[in-house]
Amino acid sequence: MNSVLHQTRDLSRNGWAVWGLALIAAWLFSQLTVDLLPWAHKYPRDWIWPIRFEITAFMKWLVNDATFGLFTFKELTRSVSWLLDWPLTAATSLFSTGLMKGQGSDAVQLTPPLAWLAVLGVLAAMGHYARDWKLAALVGGCFLYLAVFGQWDSAMVTLSSIVVAVPIGVAGGLMLGILAYRSPWFEKAIRPVLDLMQTVPIFAYLVPILFLFGFGPVAAMTATIIYAMPPMVRVTVLALRQVADEIVDFGRMVGCTRRQMTWKVLVPAAMPSLMVGVNQVIMLSLNMVIIASMIGAGGLGFDVLSALRRLDIGAGLEAGIAIVVLAIALDRLSQAFASRPPPQHHDQPQGWVRRHPWLSFSILWIALTGIGGLLLEPVQAYPETLELTTASFWGELVKYINITFFDYLEGIKTFFLLNLLIPFKRFLLDIPWAVIAALAGLAGWRLGGWKLALTAFSLSLLIAATGQWEKAMVTVYLCGISVVIASLIGIPIGILAAQNQRAGKVVQVIIDTLQTLPSFVYLMPVVMLFRVGDFAAMIAVVAYALAPAIRYTAHGIRQIDPNLVEAGIAAGCTRWQVLGKIKLPLALPEIMLGINQTIMLALSMLVITALVGTRDLGQEVYIALTKADTGRGIVAGLSVAFIAIIADRLIAAGSGHMRRRLGLAEEGGGK
Amino acid sequence: MKDSPVKLSCRGVWKLFGPDPKRFLARHNHAPDNAAIADAGLIGAVCDANIEVREGEIFIIMGLSGSGKSTLVRCLSRLIEPTGGEVIFDNRDLLTASEAEMIEIRRHKMGMVFQHFALLPHLTVLGNVAFPLEVQGVARAAREARALEVIELVGLKGREGYYPRELSGGQQQRVGIARSLAVEPEIWFLDEPFSALDPLIRREMQDEFLRLQSVLKKTIVFITHDFDEAIRLADRVAIMKDGWTIQIGTPEALVTAPADDYVAEFTKDIPRAKVLSAASVMEPPGGDYAGEVPAEARVADVAARVEAADKPHAVVSDGTIVGQLTRQIVIDVLVGREVGGGGQT
Questions:
Q1: Which contiguous run of DSSP H or E holds residue B245?
Q2: DSSP structural state of residue B84
Q3: Domain limits for position B300
Q4: If both were cysteines, with which of A240, A367, A633, B105 could A624 make a disulfide (CB 3.0 to 4.6 Å apart)?
Q5: Summary mean pLDDT of chain B
Q6: Between A and B, how many CB-CB pairs are < 8 A?
Q7: How many CA atoms lie within 13 A of A280 on its CB side?
Q8: How many separate domains does chain B show?
Q9: At what angle do helices A534-558 and A501-516 cross, to 10 degrees?
């Protein structure tokens, strides 16, 4: 035992020495070689690998000339569009426009859409079915809000997209997940793709899809489905693996065929975990549907986007709040479905209606409101005269804040910019790219061996080689500062939440809500107070990325073996000593995972803040999107993904290292 | 039972975990020793298992956790593919059966009960019990009728509409038992069926199991880590340690003639009266009897009767008197004195 301790101490002392030497070498290198090795400081223009033009050319070829013999690529995308178009049209007719005949302005409405009272009633009934009256009231209240505050029409457009995207995303994810569960080969093939898809920023999806599918609701739908599917695949594989071995053995012992095994044993047994995946698909779809307004999804996202473009704070906030309301309703509803209490026995009542009370109510209610809507206008559509608008109120409020507190807000912003943001940015941009890449490689080697070193170094090299280095450093700087601030705020809150039960409950509700909000929504208040620029972006990123830092810290501290804490108290530790000497060191690996998540969220938000005028990779993707320049968008998007992958692998390796040292993880191997 | 035909047997069955175990086994002529296995970096979960289970017999595989008993029973049903050997069921080698044939055999001839019940949470008791028949494609009315029969057999009538988690552990295992019996299997595997239950319930379930077996007369392979349970239920016991089968015999033989110290250690605290049969401790017949006891009866079960009587009891086998049991013998057995019984079997 003693020798092991000794070794670890030697190793860590050794580690500091390595890092000290490396940093000194790096500094010397940067100082001495400006003239000798200019290429190491600024990546030479001539060396840039013109992959982005190659990608653009390839995409052009794909769209214009590619053919699979029987049909061309264009026909393929067209038929996908067509396939997605009809359910989307059906959903839109149902919720928003009614069944139409004819084209454009000549179109005649054959039947009206579902009456607003019908939608509200059915969703409330779902809430009651899934949990109780309280949830029914919450869901009903949310939709009532949408109607009263004049957001109904846009919300229904958004809802129709979700109603179509979610089943497709869930079914697709389930199928791929089952395939991956059955075939280890397929899983190996699909895992890196999933990893990449979850780290490529949301905008980057839009560029190639815009190029392939054009501008419009179907393209937006495609992007939404592709974006929301990967977590379902992961959840499915995990859920199926978690099914008890005995259940699998049982299935085989009664002679299930493979199909029976999957659909009669595995999937039903894994249902509660699978429902968690469904909840994720719903929330991600909502997030993406909002952002996909940039490539033609209408609805609430479009309202926010156009308000942002007009800098119409009032209208933007109204739509933003409507998104929040919709997100909360959908999240709580789907979570309630996921955690619905297991079935209870009951004497089967007689008659279909009695056995299906909620379904019968819904059908009856839709019929009633449908007939009522034909006779009475207010049943069909919420009367416009009763709509409230808060836009002018918000506008006035923001004006008042900006006039009254202008000096303070501006002071804070300038202070941060001058003392923190700009110096750090300069510092990062001054370091030669070769030095940073080498340091990334060194970190990889120290934490995870030569394989990780190679990954970190070659990904850094790729970023430089595609000519993205400066922009990437801006991304790193903004992300880095935001993550540090988010951790400084989040970790103490997490500690507080873990120490104090009541605070913990409050914090839980807040971060749950924060995490359901689509990333777009965070931009509104920030723009309102700080207008555009790096500082505004930083605030939005910190707000968006805060939740995991809190959640993981709290979880890390709560999961510590209570015996260890008791041992500390018995040994006479004060509260602070227990916290500092026992809880925090043991929770450190978990806290690091939280920071890892924070980095991932920060990167994904950072790209979206391109809308408020940052000058980083996100801006690059955004510009590519407006110009439909696929190569540019993909290269910039992949660079963000590379940064994410480097950070993720390094931190995961560091956390694993620490876990092993603390003896928290079982040693690998086993049978 | 000794003369019943062999229903299920395995010969030289190995299950090794690790790199390329098949070739290793072939290289060592299917008889590697522990040292060779360890040297090759392999783990021997089942080593050279040879057992024979006769029709209508309760064959118990006993061992502590990690001894390979669960792996062995899964090799017998081919849930786990053995590394080598033969598993003979009804005179055919299961290891040569195709996947489709295995499905047929499992559907109609095998039943299995699991330690943690393995009930499907989304189905009612009725749905769970009818499930094996549903998989076979039996029509709903027929399978539910059959399911109701077995549910009644295990004493759960009236609970058909309940979901598994609404039942107690003992009730859940009754469902597991009913489910495995729904297809009328020819061989019945029970993998530590009562280990997850409270001691009192366990006892009750053992009695229930014996009652069922007295009606059904199935061929049974029963896994347990509890030696008391083994001697209480078994016709014969195989004791496993670190993958090897170290002794196979009747509970009586294990107690009276343990193969090695390991077995002796297990049997040390077992009250002899619960294991020894009347036949194994009787003396030659005298003439004047107070009553009769069956030859295979355990001493503990007849002790009170014999002890209370003034005269010895006749030990009867197949209608003929083969010996007698006296008060003194019973007391000797009960206090643990060596008994120089007449007919050791």
A1: strand B244-249
A2: E
A3: 272-335
A4: A633
A5: 88
A6: 76
A7: 18
A8: 2
A9: 130
Contact residues on chain A for B196, CB-CB shorter than 8 A:
none
CATH number at residue B306: 3.90.1280.20
Catalogue the long-range contacts made by A93-99 (C-beta closer than 8 Å, 24 or more residues apart). A94/A160, A95/A119, A95/A156, A95/A157, A95/A159, A95/A160, A95/A163, A96/A153, A96/A156, A96/A157, A96/A160
Please say whether the beta carbons of B272 and B255 come within 8 A: yes
Query: Are the Cβ atoms of A249 and B114 closer than 8 angstroms?
Result: yes
Least CB-CB distance to A250: which of B118, B159, B163? B118
In A, minimum Cα distance to B160 occurs at A345
In angstroms, rounded to a whole number, what is the distance separating the alpha carbons of residues B124 and B121? 8
CATH number, domain of B63, equals 3.40.50.300
Each residue's pLDDT tens digit, A600-616:
889 888 888 888 878 88
SS3 B317: strand
ipTM of the complex as predicted:
0.87
* Model pLDDT, residue B49: 92
pLDDT at A482: 93
β-strand partners of B277:
B298
Burial class for B98, CB neighbours closer than 10 Å (0-12, 13-18, 19+) = exposed
Q: B325 and B302 in contact (C-beta within 8 Å)?
A: yes
Burial readout A167-185 (b: 16 or more C-beta within 10 A, e: otherwise): ebbbebbbebbbbbbeeee
Q: Please, what sign has the CA dihedral across residues A434, A436, A441, A445? A: positive
A668 pLDDT band (50/70/90 cuts)? Answer: very low
Residue B319, chain A, CB below 8 Å: the answer is no
pTM of structure? 0.82
- Residue A463 near residue A642, CB atoms below 8 Å: yes
B124 touches chain A (CB under 8 A): yes
Helices (H) and strands (E) in chain B, counts: 15, 13
Q: Does B161 touch chain A (CB under 8 A)?
A: yes
CA distance A603 to chain B (A): 41
Q: In terms of domains, do B188 and B287 share one? A: no
| Domain final position from B212, B238, B267 | B267
The single-letter code of the amino acid at A146 is L
Query: The dihedral of CA B168, B170, B176, B179: what is its sign?
Result: negative
B118 with A247: Cβ contact below 8 A:
yes
Tell the residue number behind the tokens 């009891």, with chain if given.
B313
On the question of pLDDT at B271 being above 90, the answer is: no
The DSSP letter of residue B95 is: G
For chain A, give percent helix, strand, coil, nearest 5: 85, 0, 15
B 56-95: CB under 8 A from A: 74, 77, 79
| Residues in chain A, overall count | 671
The answer to whether residue B162 sits within a structural domain is yes
Contact of A259 with chain B, judged by CB distance below 8 Å, is answered with no
Pairwise pLDDT comparison (B162 vs A431), residue with the higher score? B162
Distance CA A261, CA A177 (A): 15
B195 contacts chain A (CB < 8 A): no
**Any A CB within 8 A of B132 CB:** yes
**Looking at CA atoms only, how far is residue B215 from chain A in angstroms?**
23
Over residues A396-428, the pLDDT tens digits come to 888 888 888 888 888 888 888 888 888 888 888
- Mutation pick from B42, B79, B89 vs chain A, by most beta carbons of A within 10 Å, is B79
Same domain? B180 vs B77: yes
State the CB neighbour count (10 A cutoff) for residue A500: 12
